[in-house]
Design a protein that fits this description.
The complex is a heterodimer of chains A (340) and B (510).
Chain A lengths: L6 H7 L4 H4 L2 H18 L6 H25 L8 H17 L5 H26 L3 H20 L9 H8 L1 E2 L3 E2 L1 H18 L1 H11 L1 H6 L4 H27 L15 H10 L11 H20 L4 H34 L1
Antiparallel strand pairs in A: 1-2
Chain B lengths: L1 E12 L2 E12 L3 E5 L6 H8 L7 E6 L2 E3 L4 H6 L2 E4 L11 H5 L6 E2 L2 E2 L1 H14 L15 H14 L4 E5 L7 H16 L3 E5 L3 H7 L2 E6 L2 E8 L5 H9 L24 E8 L6 E5 L4 E6 L5 H8 L5 E8 L2 E2 L5 H8 L1 E4 L3 H5 L6 H6 L3 H4 L8 H14 L16 H14 L4 E5 L7 H16 L3 E5 L3 H7 L2 E6 L2 E7 L4 H21 L1
Parallel strand pairs in B: 3-10, 3-11, 6-9, 9-10, 15-20, 15-21, 18-19, 19-20
Antiparallel strand pairs in B: 1-2, 1-4, 4-5, 7-8, 11-12, 13-14, 13-16, 16-17, 21-22
Helix pairs in contact in B: 4-5, 14-15
The chains are: A mainly alpha (340), B alpha/beta (510).
Chain lengths: 340, 510
């Protein structure tokens, strides 16, 4: 055991594709490049109003990305992000408008309601042992369907002014008030996953549930917690969207919430969260969401139709997933040759 | 007749020369040992021979012809098959389907099942094993799966068979059977390459030996008769082996004989253990020996709460304990379990060394704000990594990047961090090089002499006789005897085998 004990060092020093494993820099560069491109070719991209509206989209996309990210880290996924977001926002709208509750209290209720819907996903996943893909595919329809039945597809349009004003507030003329909310959420998640025992347990359980279990971690609890957190974050995104619209609309995330599906996967996957679980990047997810909203805003300004956007975003997701694959193959190969 | 000649093969990985001009030649009708410490390049060489890797330099000659393997299939077509440490069978297929997978008899795309079963049965019979070809692989024992893999290799007309640690998960009885079979294959003209860490087996079975050290030949195709154990070890590790002397302690002085650390009374489990009773004292190393499938690891897992205990009582420090999950076992009773399967049960390969060590104590590491940063984690993990001499440039290194021996050290270290007072250690040295093995043995003694009660599960008889104070024998989910360890390998191993054998005959009578 002389020279070979040094194998890991030598091999980890030699990493020609290191930029693939840390893509924060790559994302920042890409965003800067695109922004420069659009500011030259997309008329009005740098206008204060455009920056403000782009910030609103961005903030919501970031939170939607977080909602998916916290489930991806467990090695699962949550297709019901959109359905929960809309259902919780409608619940909040009902609490504010029909019950006449203070908007803050209504918002808290909505967040709690999202948490409950998410926790149901988590409990069903843990108790049945069925993959969360199937569970959340089912609950996506159940939640959305129940919401339509209960609200009779009617919107809540008479929401408290104090609440809807959040969606219209701008600082310095171009910073949406929704952005600080998204960033604060990111900060909380960053602390959770970097500086708490719970965050570490979640990552361990996601990477290797069996080993985590045998090390004394209650793996089932971490999965339920993550789904619950995902529900709260989805509800937050729903509330932000409601504030932006000035009304809680059953259709605001498309049928069964499908409009959120693509952005929810794009942000974490672009940001380097592995679909296999155990690894995540809060900053990366935020940057991923920023990239997506910059791309869409620019394309819309350049008068591309909606279906073009979907095409582009789909292609980007494919590219990101391929990159994810390359990353894990590359990581596996490095590991392999060091075991030898 | 030389069937395989490997000359001056080199393989580079970024930053490391895994193989450096390695050579050996293989004769028909002989068994050739390929030895070396972990990281010496054995696996790389095997992967080159089976077409997984392409060498940067050097030549392979099979039956006198130079060959280049681009894919594993090329190697198969040249008649080279490998039986790997990990089983490579499709578990929900039948034995026959697995054996015939590469050449399923079919007509117009439809599989001829009758013919498939006949052909598979032929290969199984030629190995003299009574496995029904229709049995799903998932129903077979580990040893049987291995035999199916050998049958598969034969069905592929392999005349060169590479066996990578074939006995790692076999019992002595199964090993004896396997060796008979390998000798029979040898006598029929097959050339075999045998990779093992167990030198006793190498001397028992092999004719010639090639030793690799740091990717180079330490010796090349040398007749084994010219070497003794000491010389062989010296070739492998580059210096004389130091056989550890057990520090004699009088540590199990029975200072408190009435209060065992772990007392198991008449315990039944859901997975089928019946009436298990034993007690384990502080500072004692209690061996638990049994054939694969006898229920040893299953019982260990029942103790730490992964299986339901249906009857009987478990006392820890004389206090009756109800352990419903690993967390309770650890947090309330300071009982830990070092898994036999470090890669899938012991470690989180993608995470850092510090995380893998501190995982058992994260809750204790929170600061006054209930936060836990990397610095605190590292500070807590470092002494344990240091004590175990985990060799790594950085404690932030991913565990998956470490060698097998260092990985095993990490999977033990986390229980040191947890200050386990009862530690169940399951097969601590499977597939681990001699140095680390000796080191781990010393560590187990040390832990015991510091007062840890250790339940040691091992299929490695020399290891058992070296470490244990007493040896319990488990057979078919029951304890069937206890052997006091006199440290005399011959007599103890005979006592153990006769206890197991006696049980076999009584079972047959039923």
């Amino acid at each position: 055991m002389t020279s070979h004990t040094t194998t890991p060092t030598e091999a980890s020093r030699f990493r020609p594709f290191a930029f693939l494993t840390s893509n924060i820099t790559g994302l920042v560069l890409l965003i800067a490049l695109l922004a420069t491109f659009y500011s030259m070719y997309a008329t009005g991209f740098t206008s204060k109003f455009n920056l403000y509206t782009m910030g609103r989209v961005m903030a919501i996309d970031i939170v939607i990305g977080f909602a998916m990210m916290v489930v991806l880290v467990t090695g699962g996924l949550n297709l019901a992000v959109g359905a929960i977001g809309v259902a919780a926002a409608m619940f909040g709208g009902w609490a504010m408008e029909s019950l006449g509750l203070h908007w803050g209290f209504g918002a808290l209720l909505a967040l709690a309601f999202g948490g409950v819907l998410g926790a149901i996903n988590g409990l069903a996943t843990v108790k049945t042992g069925v993959h969360s893909f199937v569970i959340t595919l089912a609950t996506m329809s159940v939640y959305f369907g129940a919401m339509i039945v209960l609200t009779e597809a009617e919107a809540f349009r008479a929401l408290p002014k104090d609440f809807t004003v959040i969606g219209k507030t701008r600082y310095y003329g171009f910073v949406s008030a929704l952005l600080p909310i998204a960033l604060a959420t990111g900060a909380i998640l960053l602390v959770l996953f970097r500086y708490t025992a719970l965050g570490r347990k979640i990552k361990a359980a996601g990477a290797n549930p069996r080993a985590a279990e045998l090390s004394g971690i209650a793996v089932g609890n971490t999965v339920v917690f993550c789904h619950c957190l995902s529900g709260v974050l989805a509800a937050l995104a729903g509330l932000m969207l409601t504030a932006r619209n000035g009304a809680a609309l059953p259709s605001m995330a498309g049928h069964v919430g499908q409009d959120w599906l693509l952005p929810s996967f794009l942000a974490p996957v672009l940001g380097g969260t592995l679909l296999t679980g155990g690894t995540l990047s809060v900053v990366g997810t935020a940057l991923g969401a920023i990239l997506v909203s910059v791309i869409t805003t620019g394309l819309l300004l350049m008068k591309f139709a909606d279906f073009w956007l979907n095409l582009f975003l789909g292609l980007i997701l494919l590219a990101a997933v391929l990159l994810d694959r390359v990353r894990s193959v590359y990581a596996a190969r490095r590991q392999q040759m060091q075991v030898d | 007749m030389t069937v395989l000649a490997v000359s001056s093969v080199s393989k580079l990985f970024p930053g490391v020369r895994a193989l450096d001009q390695a050579s050996f030649d293989l004769q028909a009708g002989s068994i050739h040992a390929l030895l070396g410490e972990n990281g010496a390049g054995k696996s790389t060489l095997i992967k080159i021979l089976t077409g997984v890797y392409t060498p940067e330099a050097g030549t392979l000659m099979v039956d006198g012809q130079t060959r280049k393997f681009a894919t594993p299939r090329d190697a198969l077509l040249a008649g080279i098959s490998a039986v790997h440490q990990e089983r490579n069978l499709i578990s929900y297929f039948s034995a026959a389907e697995n054996i015939m997978l590469e050449s399923l008899p079919n007509a117009r795309g439809m599989i001829n099942f009758k013919q498939m079963h006949e052909q598979a049965a032929h290969w199984l019979e030629s190995l003299n094993v009574g496995i029904d070809p229709r049995t799903p692989v998932s129903k077979l024992s580990v040893a049987q799966m291995q035999l199916v893999e050998i049958a598969k290799a034969l069905a592929q007309q392999a005349h060169i068979l590479l066996l990578d640690e074939p006995t790692a998960s076999l019992t002595p009885h199964e090993t004896t059977h396997l060796f008979e079979l390998l000798r029979q294959l040898r006598d029929n003209g097959t050339a075999l390459v045998f990779v093992s860490h167990k030198l006793e087996e190498v001397f028992e079975l092999c004719d010639r030996v090639t030793v690799l050290r740091d990717g180079k030949n330490a010796c090349q195709s040398q007749p084994l008769a010219e070497l003794d154990r000491q010389q062989l070890v010296k070739l492998m590790i580059g210096r004389e082996e130091q056989i550890p002397e057990r520090p004699d302690t009088g540590r199990h002085s029975n200072d408190n004989p009435d209060s065992p650390a772990l007392d198991v009374r008449n315990v039944d489990t859901l997975s089928g253990h019946r009436d298990i009773s034993f007690s384990l004292k502080k500072g004692e190393i209690l061996g638990l020996y049994g054939l694969v499938g006898s229920g040893r690891s299953e019982f260990a897992k029942a103790l730490i709460g992964l299986d339901t205990i249906t009857r009987g009582e478990i006392r820890l420090d004389s206090i009756p304990a109800t352990i419903k999950d690993v967390r309770t076992a650890l947090a309330q009773y300071r009982m830990g379990y070092v898994s036999e399967d470090r890669k899938s049960e012991g470690l989180i390969l993608e995470h850092s060394i510090t995380s893998n060590i501190a995982i058992t104590i994260w809750d204790d590491l929170k600061n006054s704000l209930r936060l836990l940063g990397n610095r605190r984690e590292t500070a807590a993990a470092q002494p344990h990594a240091q004590r175990l001499q985990v060799r790594t440039p950085s404690l932030q290194q991913q565990v998956g990047n470490l060698s097998g021996g260092n990985q095993q050290k990490v999977s033990v270290a986390k229980w040191l961090a947890a200050r386990a007072s009862v530690l169940i250690i399951d097969e601590p040295t499977v597939g681990i090089d001699i140095n680390t093995k000796n080191y781990l043995h010393e560590l187990i003694w040390q832990l015991a002499s510091e007062g840890t009660a250790i339940l040691l599960i091992s299929s490695d008889m020399p290891e058992m006789t070296l470490l244990a104070d007493r040896i319990l024998i488990m057979n078919d989910f029951k304890l069937t005897g206890e052997v006091a360890n006199t440290r005399d390998y011959e007599s103890v191993s005979q006592a153990i085998m006769s206890t197991i054998h006696q049980q076999d005959t009584t079972l047959e009578q039923h």
